[in-house]
User: Fold this.
Amino acid sequence: MSAPVVDVWGPVAPEARSSFPSAPEPHDEWVLGGGTAWVYYSPLNRRQLIRPVILSDGFSSGSSNPDQLWHGLEENGGYRFISELHATGRDVIILGYTDRTASITDNAETAIECIRRALAERVGRSRLAVGGFSMGGLVTRYALAKMEQDPSLPDHETSLYFSYDTPHHGAWFPIAIQAFTHFATDNWGDTPGIGPVLRQFSGLLNSPAAKQMARWHIEKADATPEQASERVAFLEALDEVGGWPRIPRKIGVANGVGTGTGNGIKAGATAVRCDGDTLHDTWLKTQAKGEQVVARLQRTGGEPVSVRTNGLPEIDGAPGGLFTVPSPAGDTGSFGLAGLLMGLLGNTVDADVITTSCFIPSISAVAVGDISDPEALYQPISPDGSPLDAFVCADRSEGHTTMTEELGGWIVNEIAANG
Assistant:
């Protein structure tokens, strides 16, 4: 199974990932304020930076891992994205961050520094291609737009902006999973072994970047789902710089379908349930419309907690990029991760867990509709109405940031055709 470019849960997942082979030694490495750029020159350019393409990492825990990024981009079993860019004479700059959970606007400063460094190192006058995967598309979108609006910053000299399964209109972290994670952390966050894992997971969901991306967020299990203040502030900051860069051609791809066909996950279904030493009759449901109890959480011997939502769409089954589907590498999807945590807390998890769910709805990845609109989520996507100049949706809903020839090849062709 293909590894994603961006592994959302990353080192927070309680089962160790398979180790990734070491990435090739970069031809150059730029230490930036807030991150690192790994530079791989095209063999056609004799180790000179002539036609730079900047690929930004996205949201996950901790700092960027060049081995994992290289594996997702180049050794994923589906499409050798870096090799194909090199074959067109493009030099690849992989942009990573010291803290992938930091504010999008903070990491955008690192992206701006990377763009400026690329311009300074470039031989000749070829314009750049700049974009990113998942949250990396938001980071670079904001960075380019800011460079156009701020007179103290230079021309970004970028001809193409691209995003790969980026949550332009918000991401979906299931409320049931957010609630269970915070509940488990409140009750067992100080327990040796599992406690640090729970605290990390809860902290990841409550991080600045997660709050900025999530269309609905809860800080605690009993909170009301809403847009976090951090998301409201980010959207205002984005508006202040014009929303989008205006100079480059703007393109994007979605790991979900554009036909409006859902992924098959039924609304209101029990996704995961457990009973045992620490949790009694605890279950999480997939999201349904209207008023719903999405989770029942009960510490053994304690009082049950009901987690309610109202007015949310049937979004777990919506077309879009999925939380990474379970794989031998230790990835656990979304509800699958909750089930794994339940088991590690000493409980028996019922069979037939619905492991994964929609993460980035297709309409969000191509910026054509409001993901809170239950009808828009399941409508065929029109080629009109997006601020992107062109976009492509996958032929099936697949793992978030899965690199495929269908999507990666289209981006490579667009880059080759734009300077």
Remarks:
- The chain is about 30% helix and 20% strand.
- The mean pLDDT is 94.
- The first strand starts at residue 28 and ends at 32.
